[in-house]
């Protein structure tokens, strides 16, 4: 059997391909960023063709760096930025418009329109999700209403909808020449069009959102042999796993038991807790979602706290304010001061997600005095991530009744020691950083490997887990309470800025 597995991790700001061995160690990887298109305030788009081109490019580069060819791969898994919405022509494969990214807020009027009849939680019982600009269903409805001819084409099945996993899987397996139009249960659960209990498209939801069934992908398991890749350089490799990025990280962290949780620090931050075989309704502003489904086994569910802006705030300091040249430089700059100087940043660039769900919130910098420097701003930017994670941890404890014993971390910002230590301090709980922090890609590789028999069962994956460092709390309770109290005051200042 082939010695390696590969994973495509198509994220919000870049696309990676990582080659893993059977011990879950990285053999080689390649990464390429793509442009963030912002044609109007609150709008965020991606070029779907660029995402596909980058996927092919990084796959070739990763194989070359590993010194292997497609035949050396047992299978490939795919993880993706979730709610980002693509609509394309079945015959030509061309996008009908740019992809609408998950953080885009153009559907605010549609949210208000649907919430007017039944409130923000109108569909939560069936979908686990509040009405929000975040999810795919309303983005698709917007495209159908604003792209000329799109609705009629969708009704005929000539326009296809999908999140980015569907777009890539369709092209990789043949595109117009018989490509697979599929999405897995985790991505389908983020459209607000799927019934959590049945894991099937819900006709009443499709009717409410005005979505034609003919344009929808087939819902499949997260770990199953779906077909073979038709495009070089991966031609002939089995596509055997698809997971939304945060669910992929949960699998990569081997959180297979109820109560086990991870937090991924990327463009946004996403804390997810496995809740087992039954969906748990949230009372504290969290999302109820699919965690994964392996083969024909029953689906597993999770609670999730989604935070829109974490790493994106660092990118904003780099690209818009030009305070730093590269993202990693923020740690050294923040270390120039011993504390935040009473400066707090609430990065509500596209509203606030869990646990607040305030689409009209906007970003604020609070507590500025003449004493504040760029170093204080840098430190406040890092601390904003940790405070937002604490907000979600407290909501999750309220919903689950489980006090967090330790936080498993991954994602690019997990490499920042200052942030990880402050996270432990503000949570009053240990923060655990694994040896492989690219657990999103690892989870996709695990899903693919399980489907083709590289590993016999999910429990066998736990042997691959390795800890790089544990950050233990070192802050006194009085300081912890003071910092968090000021953070909560700053959050209140961000509410209802947009009308």
Q: Give the count of helical stretches.
A: 15
Major β-sheet annotation:
7 strands, mixed
Which outline best applies? globular
SS-based structural class? alpha+beta
- Helical residue percent? 25-40%
Q: Can you characterise this structure?
A:
The protein is an alpha+beta fold and 499 residues long. The protein is 32% helix and 23% strand. The protein is built from 15 helices and 23 strands. The strands form seven sheets. Strands 17-18-16-15-21-22-23 form a seven-stranded mixed sheet. A six-stranded mixed sheet has the order 3-2-1-5-14-13, with helices on both faces. The chain has a two-stranded antiparallel ribbon with strand order 4-7. The N and C termini lie far apart (59 Å). The model has no long low-confidence stretch (mean pLDDT 94).
Layout of secondary structure:
Elements: E1 4-10, E2 14-20, E3 26-33, E4 45-46, H1 48-66, E5 73-80, E6 85-89, E7 99-100, H2 108-115, H3 124-127, H4 136-146, H5 150-155, E8 159-163, H6 164-172, E9 182-184, H7 185-188, E10 194-195, E11 200-201, H8 203-209, E12 218-220, E13 223-228, E14 238-244, H9 245-252, E15 261-265, E16 269-276, E17 287-292, E18 300-307, H10 311-319, H11 329-334, E19 344-346, E20 364-366, H12 374-400, E21 407-410, H13 417-427, E22 431-434, H14 439-452, E23 467-471, H15 477-494
Parallel strand pairs: 1-5, 5-14, 9-12, 15-21, 21-22
Antiparallel strand pairs: 1-2, 2-3, 4-7, 6-8, 10-11, 13-14, 15-16, 16-18, 17-18, 19-20, 22-23
Helix pairs in contact: 1-6, 9-14, 10-12, 12-13
